[in-house]
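Is pyridoxal-5'-phosphate placement plausible here? Inputs below.
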Amino acid sequence: MKQNEAIAQFDVASIRKQFPTLKQTVYGKPLIYLDNGATSQKPQMVIDAIDRYYSKENSNIHRGVHFLSQHATTLYEDARTTIQKYINAPSSDEVIFTSGTTGGINLVAFSFGELLNEGDEIIISAMEHHSNIVPWQLLCERKKCVLKVIPINSKGELIMAEFDKLLTDKTKIVSITHISNALGTINPIREIISKSHSIGAKVLIDGAQSIQHTKIDVQELDCDFFIFSGHKVFGPTGVGILYGKREILDQMPPYQGGGDMIAKVTFEKTTYNELPHKFEAGTPNISGGIALGTAFEFLNQLDLNEVEVYETELLNYAQSELVKLDGLKIIGTAEHKTSVVSFVIDGLHPFDVGTLLDKQGIAVRTGHHCTQPVMDFFGIPGTIRASFAFYNTKEEVDILVNGLKRSISMLR
Ligand SMILES: *Cc1c(COP(=O)(O)O)cnc(C)c1O
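Reply from A.M.:
I modeled the complex. Tokens:
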């Protein structure tokens, strides 16, 4: 299909109607929401799911004999199954509710980390979000493991020849972002997974920026862990998913202790519950889990291939228009890229530009995007970042470009 045809076919107007936040004005101007990398807006059906839960369904789960508790349990477990099917996990036992990407990576870094020994090696990359750096640093301190970092080139791509050199028989896990939140780079995760597996290392994919843009099939990828946040995939905050292969999760000790994660507790010895409950201590974010299931029901109504083509076209259009602006430089020019355009403008501080855009109703993010090492690599304090979702339009890109022109003329 020609890209322009895809754009024409993709019915953005009817999609936008389902997102109430997009309909408002700020400072009397229509809101142009281009900060989807930070968090996505929610469709009405997700908002309704939360409202319905607290209006009619609220009850604690996995415990009660009474009607409401059983009903809430069914809804929560149905949501898990919806998500399991969406990512094609073999079993819902391998789909663990967490508090988000940060929560999921910390769980794995701690619990899988308990299986590691002094001198074992962990590989991450130079483009990771802080939440895929710091948990591994904590593990390295605790267990005297060694953290190695795949470098990037000036386009913001992983240098795969260096990755080959970093992999050794001491490598136990490679933890890598699928798509960079700061640069938009799509990493060659299939190659990373197969090379890592060939020397016996496990692979964790940080899917915080990919699950909302591309179809994920964890069995086809053959990753050992896949982690994402609910709020970036049109669901609520405070909930996320850790998918892990059963044989690895079974070997891992619990992360937190408490209710729901136990089989039997005595003061002498406690035995742990089965998956997934072993990793879900305490009362979870019940409404969040249910509404995240609803977010995936929303996604199930879309054709993700169409979404991908549409978003790629939007990105290409934005990039081609932005580079026409005097002194504007795009940071992150990888060959394989999606939905994020980060840039700097000669002589202007990103924060000042972001502030002037805001006054025109345009929401972008400025700063280091929780990836300070990336900013250090490019020798900049931060970028201005526009990040798109399928509900954004070419007209919004035009408004951004015009807003930038006005901001530049005011600041220069
Ligand atoms: C947002 C993000 C995270 C952290 O997600 P939280 O929802 O803040 O836990 C981690 N990695 C990437 C690539 C992200 O974009």
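Short version: The first strand starts at residue 25 and ends at 26.
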